[in-house]
Amino acid sequence: MAKTLTTRAPDSLAKEIEALAREEHLDRSSLIRRLLAEAVEEKRKRKALRIYAEGKASIGKAASIARISIWDMMELIRQRGLHIDYGSEELLEDLEPLRRKKGARGK
User: Fold this and answer.
1) What is the pLDDT of residues 65-89, one digit of tens each?
2) Portion of the chain with pLDDT greater than 90, in percent
3) At what angle are helices 59-66 and 70-79 packed, to 10 degrees?
4) Domain hosting residue 89, numbered range
């Protein structure tokens, strides 16, 4: 179910949104929904990159936070110029959810 969100925007931003909506042949609400979805997705990725760079999460955990695959997370890390530190400990941590899932099916 959709929820209505209300916000105020500066005139300059509102004009820019109107112009973008016309360019993309969308109504203003559709464009704003699209922009919000993209912004939330980007925010999740930045958070995941930050905690990975701080050593607080493995690649798998960061990928989960960003809601992307481990492979996409590794590519994002590479694109941002961060060091990929992926050893056996991280592999075992990332495989644990699969082991639990397999174990649940076997019962």
Assistant:
1) 999 998 899 999 999 998 887 777 7
2) 65
3) 100
4) 11-106
